[in-house]
Write a structure and sequence with these properties.
Layout lengths: L6 H16 L5 E4 L5 H7 L3 E4 L10 H25 L4 E3 L6 H10 L3 E5 L6 H6 L5 E4 L13 E3 L6 H4 L10 E6 L6 H17 L3 E6 L5 H11 L2 E5 L5 H5 L4 E4 L3 H10 L3 E3 L9 H11 L3 E3 L7 H12 L2 H13 L5 H22 L7
Parallel strand pairs: 1-2, 3-4, 4-5, 5-6, 7-8, 7-10, 8-9, 10-11, 11-12
Helix pairs in contact: 1-14, 3-4, 7-8, 7-12, 10-13
Length: 365
């Protein structure tokens, strides 16, 4: 299981690993001691083999050269380790952490199954696209980056609780969730703060649930309490599916995990892509939902308090559109993606083992 650094890479891989384990196979992760995999993988009960590797894009020359050398060294180390482990297949979520195990797998002829959660693949998955055994995608638009006969639309694994979020009936008080992810978003936080006087002045029956991240929480919490508006300002939401069930509208970034959760829950959303995401993939993700009629897209530079007030007010006054957006979002959801990914991974690994054993070069039983 290759891919680390962020929860967006690690959490879906853990979901697939659990399905692999349920089928009677062993899943071993490769990652760093700096990424979230160092905490999440052992906590999930899986073994983590540590490597030292860093990114290459958008860095200084010396840092890039050092990272390139570590990539070569760790790929060689993985190649040797694969000779001992005899992995049946490698599952990759992409990202620079996936580089060494994926390159080692390709060098040894081990099948590589990639899961590309974004509308536009990251650099690692684009580089290896022609050599992958299977590509598992979340958007139809992504098919053009991989061999057509080896690509399947599976979606991104999302916690089952999101699919169980019921349709919220209209209520006098309109509830909005604002979240920039676990670390928060300064743009979303500042726009929310600037919108409070506007909502207060309009006398709207509105309630906010706002996940700010830790950096701005204390300041925003005090100011929100003084605004007189209903709601809660919290640094982190542990039960996000439960929170989704309470709200009529979600305002968030458009990373693969966020849009997959919004789709699974069938929630209308306003998406504000992070402008510095690699290859602008968040904007591409948001465009897919916007075209489907499931979301409204607004650029980061144009997301202000006035824009938030106007957008929320317009949607609040149009319940038919809100309902249609939620239905369109749910049509984009892909349940059972973890199970299907595991089935494909096991199938590809099994075929490779049969081919090796038939030539008499497989591992001794």
């Amino acid at each position: 299981m290759a891919g680390g650094g962020t929860g967006g890479h690690v959490i879906p891989a853990i979901a697939v690993a659990r399905e692999v384990s349920r089928a009677g196979h062993e899943a071993v992760f490769v990652g760093t001691d700096r990424g979230v995999e160092a905490r999440l993988v052992p906590a999930a009960g899986f073994r983590l083999e540590k490597i030292r590797v860093g990114g290459i894009k958008n860095l200084g020359l010396l840092t890039r050269l050092a990272s390139l050398w570590r990539l070569i060294a760790e790929t060689a180390s993985q190649w040797r380790s694969f000779g001992q482990w005899q992995p049946a297949a490698v599952f990759s979520m992409g990202g620079y952490v996936a580089g060494p195990p994926v390159l080692a797998a390709l060098a040894r002829g081990v099948p590589v199954v990639v899961m590309e959660p974004n509308a536009v693949p990251g650099a690692t998955n684009r580089w290896i696209s022609r050599w992958v055994s299977r590509a598992l995608i979340s958007f139809e638009e992504t098919r053009r980056f991989f061999p057509k006969d080896r690509t399947e639309l599976t979606g991104l694994p999302v916690r089952e609780e999101f699919f169980l979020v019921p349709v919220k009936p209209p209520a006098p008080e309109f509830t909005v969730l604002i979240t920039g992810g676990s670390q928060g978003s300064r743009t979303l936080n500042e726009a929310a703060r600037a919108s409070w006087p506007l909502f207060r002045q309009a006398g709207a029956a509105i309630r906010f649930i706002h996940q700010t991240g830790t950096a701005m929480h204390e300041q925003l919490s005090k100011e929100f309490a003084a605004s007189g508006l209903a709601g809660e300002i919290v640094p982190f939401i542990a039960d996000m599916p439960g929170t989704f069930a309470q709200v009529d509208l979600i305002v968030c970034r458009s990373g693969a995990g966020a849009v997959s959760e919004v789709a699974a829950a069938g929630k209308p959303s306003i998406l504000v892509p992070f402008p510095f995401a690699a290859d602008d993939h968040q904007a591409k993700n948001a465009e897919v939902l916007e075209v489907a009629g499931a979301a409204i897209l607004c650029s980061d530079k144009n997301w202000t308090g006035a824009k938030l007030f106007d957008s929320v007010s317009a949607l609040r006054a149009d319940p038919d559109r809100l309902r249609a957006m939620g239905e369109a979002a749910r049509r984009l959801a892909r349940p059972d993606s973890a199970r299907r990914a595991a089935e494909i991974l096991i199938f590809e690994g099994g075929n490779a083992r049969k081919s090796i054993d038939s030539r008499g070069h497989g591992p001794k039983q």
